[in-house]
C-alpha cells in the first residue's frame, strides 16, 4: 500500500465516520484519552468535599487509575496551587473549588488553572455552566428542629432579624467561608425582592439605613449575633439534636440531612420567603502544568457522568450540572430548575467587586 | 599593581593560616559558621517572605483596586492599623490578646511555682508520679482542653446536645461557657507545665547552703521562701514568661473553639480568619505584630538575664533540700490541691474525649447508650481499630515527628556547643537569638512561607514539597528553639576542661563529642528530643498547609474525620495522640534515666 492510497482510505474512513455517526469519532477521542490517562496511571485532586475519596475509588475501579484526593478549603487549595505553579513543582492535577469569584479574578487570569469542558459532554452541559465549568450544584437550606416544632417556626427570612431569634440562628462564618459572602452578594442583587417581601410580611415599608434592602438585611442579621461555624457537621447536629426546648434555626447544606437517621437527628427544611436557601456551584479546573493532564481530563469527564457524580447526588441536596443525570428521589425538588428562583445564586463578577465591602459590613455590625 | 598584590598576599596568607589553625583547635568556629548560614536561610528567609507578603498586592486585590500583582503597597498596614475596620481587625483583638496573655501567663506561673514547690520541697503523697502527670496537659493537642471545656460547660447558646453540667440540671452562664474566662483557664492549663518544669528544675539547682545559713540564723520557712528562694527564681521566671507569653499569643485552636460562639476574637484568631478568607496581606501584618511582641519579650529577657545574673550565685554543691514535713492537715489539703490540678487539666480532657467515643448518641448519658462501636466499627463505618487511615497516620506521625525530633536534638546541642564555646563573639549572640526566633512566629504564617521557599529547587536543596522531608525540615526549624535552649543551658554547665583533657590525651573531635560531651549532655539531649517530639506529634496549623496526599499525620487525619462528620473518630485520634506521646515520653525517660525538667534551662 503506498502513501497516497493510505491517505485516501483514511480520508474515506474519516468522511464516512463524520457523515454518518459523529458519536463514533467521540468514542475514538475518549478511547484515546483513556489510553493516555492509563499511561499516566494516577491523578491528584484537591477538593472542597471529603466525598472526593468515594468518587476516586469509583474512578479507580472503572479505569484502574488511582485518585489521590484530599479535602481542602478553597483558601488552602488556592495557596497550594498558586505556589506549586509559581515554583514549577506542580503536584496537583485537578481541583474542585467553590470560590467562583476568586477563580475568575485570580486563578484563571493568572494562568494557574485552565478551564476544560469534556468535548463529548459539551452539548449536555448548559452554556452558563461551561466557563468556568460547574460540575455540581449543592443546595444549602434553612433547617429547623422537627421534634420541637411541627412546622418551621418562621415563614420569612426577615423574622431572623427579630429580637426573638437573636443568637438563635446558626450559620457559616462569613470570614471563613466564601459561600456565605457569595450569598450576601446574591441578597444584594435581589434587594428589591427583599424589600417587597418585608413590606408584604410586616405590612409596612422597610426603613433603610443602608443603600439597599440586601445590605440592610445583612446588617440586621449580623447585629442579631448568629452563632458562627467553620464546618456544618456540628451546625446541623446542634440544630437537630433531640431533647431541646428552644432549638435554633440553621443554614447548612441540605446534604447533612443524609445523617438524620444515623445520628438520630430531628431536622426539617423551612420554606421561606423570598428565598429558602442558597445554590452553590462547585467548579472543576485543571491545574496548569498538571503532571497527569490526561488522567485529570478523564476524571473531569467521569465526574460529569452518573457514576462519577453519584457520591454526591446519591444523597439529598446535590445535583449534577449535567441535567440529563438524575438525583436522589427524596430531594424536595427533582432538579435544579424546579427550585426556581427560591435559591440564592450569585454572580461571580459582582461578588469579586463587592466581597470586601460585604465582609466589612458584616464584621462591623456583628458585635 | 603587581607589587600591591605581592605586598598584600603574605599577610593575607598568614591570616588565613592563623584562621585555619584557630579553626582546627576550636571546632566551635566551624560549627558556628555552618549553623549560622543554615539558620540565616531557614529562619530569616521565611520571616522576610512574611514581611514581603505584608507589603505586596495580591492578585485578587490588584484586580479590585487597580494595580499589578506584587506592587508595593501599604494598604494592608493601613487596613490593620488605621482603617475604619482596624478596630475589629486589630485593636479589639489586641486588647483581648494582651489581657488573655497576661492573665493566662500569670495563672500559669502561679500554678507552676506552687506545684513545683509542692513536688520538690514537701512530702505530699505521690510526688514522683505527679512530676510526670503534671506535664501531661502539655502533651494534649491544644484544642483538646477547649473541646473538653465546651462539652462540660456549654449552654443553650451553642444549642445541640446537652452539656455535662446541663445534664445535671445546671445551666452555665455565657461568661463561664465561652469567651475570655474559659480561654484564660484553658491556656493556663495547657502551658503551666512549662512553668512547672522550669521551676522544679530551678528549685533543685539552688544551693541548699543558702537555706541552711538562713535556718542557722533562725529564719522561718516563709522567710526563706520570700527572701531567698523566690528571688533566686527570678531568672527562671523570666524564661517561663518568655516561653508562656509567646505561646499564649500565637495559639489559635482553643481561642477559636471557645471564642467564636460569643464573637470574642484574639489576634491569633483574627490572623486565622484572614488567612482562611484569602487575605494573606492582612494576615501577614498580624503575624508581624505577634512576632514583634515576641521579639520584645526576648529582648527584655536578654536584658534581664544580663542584669540579674550578677546577683545570682547558683553553686549546686550543697545537698538535696530537706523536704518540708507538712503537718497532717496541710499534707492532705496540699496533696489534694496538686492532684486536683492533674485531674482537671490532664485526666478531665482525656476522659471527656473518651466518653465521646463511647456514647453511641452524643450527649445522652445513659448506660444503654454506651458502646464500643466507634472503636471496632459498625454498619460499614470504620472504627479506630479497623481504620487503615489511623494506622498510616500514626506511622507517618511517628516517622516525621521522630526524625525531626532527633535532628532537632543533635542540632540543638550543636547550637549550644557553638554558642557557649564562642561566647562573647557576635556569632554566638547571633546563633543564640536566631535559633530562638521561630518560637515567636505564629506557625500558620510560617507554613505558607515555607511552601514558597521549598517548593522549588534552591541551590543544593532539591524541591522538597510533596515529600516527607519538607515536613521534617519545617518541624526541625520550628522546634529548634526548645532544643537550642536546652543545648545552650546544658553546655553552660560544662567547662572547657573535660574537653581539653581529651585533647591532651589525643582524642579527635568526634571522639570527644561521643565520649565526653555526649554522656555529659544526655539529659539535655533527651529534653531536646522529647519537647520537639511532643510538639511535632500534636502540630496542626503548621503541617496542614504542607501535607500532600500520602503524608497525612494523626492531627490532619483527625481534621479529615471531622470533615466526614466522624466526630467520635476525630476525638479518638486525639486520644491516641495523647496516649502515644505519653508512652513514648515515659519510655524515653525510663530508658535514659533522665527527666524532662533537666534540660529546658531556667
Features:
A: 367 residues; alpha/beta; D-Maltodextrin-Binding Protein, domain 2; 2 domains; 12-stranded mixed sheet; 12 strands; 42% helix; disordered N terminus; B: 602 residues; mainly alpha; MetI-like fold; 28 helices; 72% helix
Annotation, overall tally of beta strands of chain B: 0
- Quickly give the CATH architecture of the largest domain in chain A: 3-Layer(aba) Sandwich
Structural class of chain B: mainly alpha
Largest sheet of chain B: none
Domain module tally of chain A: 2
Question: Helix tally of chain B?
Answer: 28
Helicity range of chain A: 40-55%
Distance between the termini of chain A: 83 Å
Question: Which CATH class of the largest domain in chain B?
Answer: Mainly Alpha
User: For this structure, what is the CATH homologous superfamily of the largest domain in chain B?
Assistant: MetI-like
Q: Main beta sheet of chain A: strand number and arrangement?
A: 12 strands, mixed
Please specify the SSE layout and strand pairing.
The complex is a heterodimer of chains A (367) and B (602).
Chain A: H1 3-20, H2 22-40, E1 42-47, H3 52-63, E2 66-71, H4 74-87, E3 94-97, H5 100-107, E4 113-114, E5 134-145, E6 169-172, H6 178-189, H7 191-202, H8 213-223, E7 227-229, H9 233-240, E8 249-253, H10 260-263, E9 267-269, E10 277-287, H11 293-303, H12 306-313, E11 318-320, E12 343-344, H13 348-365
Parallel strand pairs in A: 1-2, 1-3, 6-7, 6-8, 10-12
Antiparallel strand pairs in A: 3-10, 4-10, 5-8, 5-9, 5-10, 5-11
Helix pairs in contact in A: 1-2, 2-11, 3-12, 5-13, 6-8, 6-13, 7-8, 8-13, 11-12
Chain B: H1 2-25, H2 27-55, H3 59-65, H4 75-81, H5 86-121, H6 127-133, H7 136-139, H8 142-153, H9 164-167, H10 174-177, H11 180-205, H12 208-216, H13 221-232, H14 234-250, H15 253-259, H16 267-276, H17 280-308, H18 328-358, H19 373-376, H20 388-421, H21 426-434, H22 443-454, H23 468-492, H24 497-504, H25 509-520, H26 522-537, H27 554-564, H28 567-592
Helix pairs in contact in B: 1-2, 2-17, 2-20, 2-21, 2-22, 4-5, 4-17, 5-11, 5-14, 8-11, 8-15, 8-18, 11-14, 11-15, 12-13, 14-17, 16-17, 18-28, 20-21, 20-23, 20-26, 20-27, 23-26, 24-25, 26-28, 27-28
Amino acid at each position: 500500500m503506498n502513501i497516497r492510497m493510505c491517505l485516501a482510505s483514511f480520508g474515506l474512513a474519516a468522511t464516512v465516520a463524520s457523515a454518518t455517526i459523529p458519536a463514533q469519532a467521540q468514542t475514538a477521542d475518549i478511547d484515546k484519552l483513556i489510553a493516555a490517562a492509563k499511561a499516566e496511571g494516577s491523578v491528584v485532586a484537591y477538593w472542597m468535599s471529603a466525598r472526593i475519596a468515594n468518587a476516586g475509588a469509583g474512578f479507580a475501579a472503572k479505569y484502574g487509575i488511582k485518585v489521590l484526593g484530599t479535602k481542602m478549603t478553597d483558601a488552602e487549595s488556592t495557596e497550594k496551587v498558586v505556589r506549586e505553579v509559581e515554583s514549577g513543582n506542580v503536584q496537583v492535577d485537578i481541583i474542585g473549588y467553590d470560590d467562583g469569584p476568586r477563580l475568575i479574578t485570580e486563578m484563571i487570569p493568572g494562568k494557574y488553572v485552565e478551564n476544560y469542558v469534556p468535548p463529548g459532554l459539551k452539548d449536555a452541559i448548559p452554556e452558563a455552566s461551561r466557563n468556568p465549568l460547574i460540575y455540581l450544584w449543592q443546595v444549602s437550606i434553612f433547617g429547623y428542629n422537627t421534634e420541637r416544632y411541627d412546622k418551621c417556626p418562621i415563614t420569612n427570612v426577615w423574622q431572623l432579624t427579630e429580637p426573638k431569634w437573636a443568637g438563635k440562628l446558626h450559620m457559616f462564618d462569613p470570614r471563613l467561608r466564601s459561600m456565605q459572602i457569595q450569598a450576601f452578594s446574591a441578597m444584594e442583587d435581589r434587594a428589591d425582592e427583599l424589600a417587597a417581601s418585608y413590606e408584604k410580611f410586616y405590612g409596612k415599608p422597610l426603613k433603610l439605613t443602608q443603600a439597599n434592602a440586601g445590605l440592610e438585611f445583612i446588617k440586621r442579621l449580623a447585629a442579631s449575633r448568629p452563632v458562627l461555624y467553620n464546618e456544618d457537621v456540628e451546625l446541623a447536629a446542634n440544630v437537630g439534636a433531640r431533647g431541646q426546648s428552644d432549638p435554633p434555626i440553621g443554614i447548612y447544606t441540605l446534604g447533612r440531612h443524609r445523617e438524620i437517621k444515623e445520628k438520630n437527628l430531628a431536622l426539617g427544611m423551612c420554606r421561606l420567603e423570598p428565598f429558602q436557601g442558597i445554590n452553590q456551584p462547585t467548579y472543576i479546573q485543571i491545574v496548569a502544568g498538571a503532571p497527569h493532564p490526561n488522567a485529570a481530563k478523564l476524571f473531569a469527564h467521569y465526574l460529569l457522568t452518573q457514576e462519577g457524580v453519584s457520591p454526591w447526588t446519591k444523597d439529598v441536596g446535590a445535583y449534577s450540572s449535567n441535567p440529563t443525570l438524575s438525583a436522589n428521589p427524596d430531594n424536595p425538588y427533582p432538579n435544579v430548575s424546579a427550585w426556581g428562583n427560591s435559591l440564592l445564586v450569585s454572580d461571580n463578577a459582582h461578588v469579586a467587586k463587592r466581597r470586601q465591602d460585604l465582609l466589612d459590613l458584616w464584621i462591623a455590625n456583628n458585635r | 599593581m603587581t607589587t600591591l598584590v605581592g605586598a598584600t598576599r603574605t599577610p593575607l596568607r598568614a591570616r588565613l593560616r592563623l584562621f585555619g589553625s584557630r579553626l582546627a583547635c576550636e571546632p566551635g568556629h566551624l560549627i558556628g559558621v555552618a549553623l549560622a548560614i543554615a539558620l540565616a536561610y531557614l529562619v530569616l528567609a521565611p520571616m522576610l517572605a512574611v514581611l514581603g507578603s505584608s507589603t505586596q498586592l495580591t492578585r485578587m486585590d490588584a484586580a479590585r483596586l487597580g494595580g499589578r500583582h506584587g506592587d508595593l503597597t501599604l494598604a494592608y498596614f493601613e487596613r490593620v492599623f488605621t482603617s475604619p475596620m482596624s478596630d475589629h481587625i486589630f485593636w479589639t483583638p489586641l486588647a483581648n490578646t494582651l489581657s488573655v496573655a497576661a492573665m493566662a501567663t500569670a495563672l500559669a506561673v502561679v500554678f507552676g511555682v506552687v506545684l513545683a514547690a509542692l513536688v520538690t520541697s514537701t512530702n505530699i503523697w505521690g510526688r514522683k508520679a505527679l512530676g510526670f502527670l503534671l506535664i501531661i496537659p502539655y502533651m494534649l493537642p491544644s484544642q483538646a482542653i477547649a473541646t473538653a471545656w465546651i462539652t462540660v460547660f456549654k449552654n443553650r447558646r451553642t444549642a445541640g446536645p446537652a452539656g455535662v453540667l446541663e445534664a445535671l440540671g445546671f445551666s452555665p452562664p455565657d461568661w463561664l461557657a465561652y469567651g475570655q474566662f474559659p480561654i484564660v483557664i484553658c491556656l493556663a492549663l495547657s502551658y503551666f507545665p512549662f512553668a512547672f518544669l522550669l521551676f522544679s528544675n530551678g528549685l533543685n539547682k539552688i544551693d541548699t547552703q543558702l537555706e541552711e545559713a538562713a535556718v542557722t540564723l533562725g529564719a522561718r520557712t516563709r522567710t526563706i521562701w520570700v527572701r531567698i528562694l523566690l528571688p533566686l527564681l527570678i531568672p527562671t521566671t523570666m524564661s517561663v514568661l518568655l516561653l508562656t507569653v509567646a505561646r499564649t499569643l500565637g495559639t489559635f485552636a482553643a481561642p477559636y473553639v471557645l471564642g467564636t460562639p460569643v464573637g470574642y476574637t484574639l489576634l491569633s484568631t483574627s490572623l486565622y480568619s484572614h488567612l482562611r478568607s484569602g487575605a494573606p496581606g492582612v494576615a501577614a501584618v498580624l503575624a508581624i505584630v505577634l512576632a514583634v511582641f515576641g521579639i520584645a519579650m526576648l529582648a527584655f529577657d536578654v536584658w534581664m538575664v544580663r542584669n540579674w545574673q550578677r546577683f545570682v550565685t547558683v553553686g549546686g554543691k550543697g545537698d538535696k533540700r530537706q523536704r518540708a514535713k507538712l503537718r497532717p492537715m496541710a499534707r492532705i489539703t496540699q496533696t489534694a490541691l496538686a492532684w486536683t490540678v492533674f485531674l482537671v487539666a490532664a485526666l478531665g480532657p482525656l476522659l471527656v474525649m473518651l466518653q465521646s467515643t463511647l456514647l453511641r448518641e452524643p450527649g445522652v448519658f445513659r448506660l444503654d447508650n454506651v458502646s464500643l462501636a466507634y472503636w471496632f466499627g459498625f454498619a460499614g463505618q470504620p472504627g479506630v481499630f479497623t481504620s487503615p487511615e489511623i494506622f498510616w497516620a500514626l506511622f507517618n506521625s511517628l516517622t516525621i515527628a521522630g526524625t525531626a525530633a532527633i535532628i532537632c536534638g543533635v542540632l540543638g546541642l550543636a547550637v549550644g556547643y557553638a554558642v557557649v564555646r564562642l561566647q562573647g563573639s557576635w556569632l554566638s549572640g547571633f546563633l543564640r537569638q536566631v535559633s530562638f526566633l521561630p518560637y515567636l512566629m505564629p506557625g500558620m504564617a510560617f507554613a505558607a512561607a515555607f511552601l514558597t521557599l521549598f517548593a522549588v529547587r534552591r541551590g543544593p536543596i532539591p524541591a522538597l514539597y510533596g515529600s516527607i522531608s519538607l515536613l521534617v525540615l519545617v518541624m526541625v526549624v520550628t522546634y529548634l528553639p526548645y532544643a537550642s535552649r536546652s543545648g545552650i543551658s546544658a553546655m553552660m554547665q560544662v567547662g572547657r576542661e573535660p574537653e581539653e583533657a581529651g585533647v591532651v590525651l589525643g582524642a579527635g573531635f568526634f571522639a570527644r563529642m561521643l565520649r565526653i560531651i555526649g554522656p555529659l549532655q544526655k539529659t539535655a539531649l533527651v529534653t531536646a528530643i522529647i519537647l520537639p517530639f511532643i510538639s511535632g506529634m500534636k502540630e496542626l496549623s503548621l503541617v496542614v498547609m504542607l501535607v500532600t496526599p500520602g503524608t497525612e499525620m494523626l492531627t490532619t487525619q483527625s481534621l479529615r474525620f471531622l470533615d466526614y462528620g466522624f466526630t467520635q473518630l476525630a476525638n479518638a485520634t486525639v486520644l491516641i495522640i495523647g496516649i502515644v506521646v505519653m508512652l513514648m515520653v515515659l519510655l524515653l525517660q525510663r530508658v535514659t534515666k533522665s527527666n524532662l525538667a533537666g534540660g529546658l534551662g531556667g
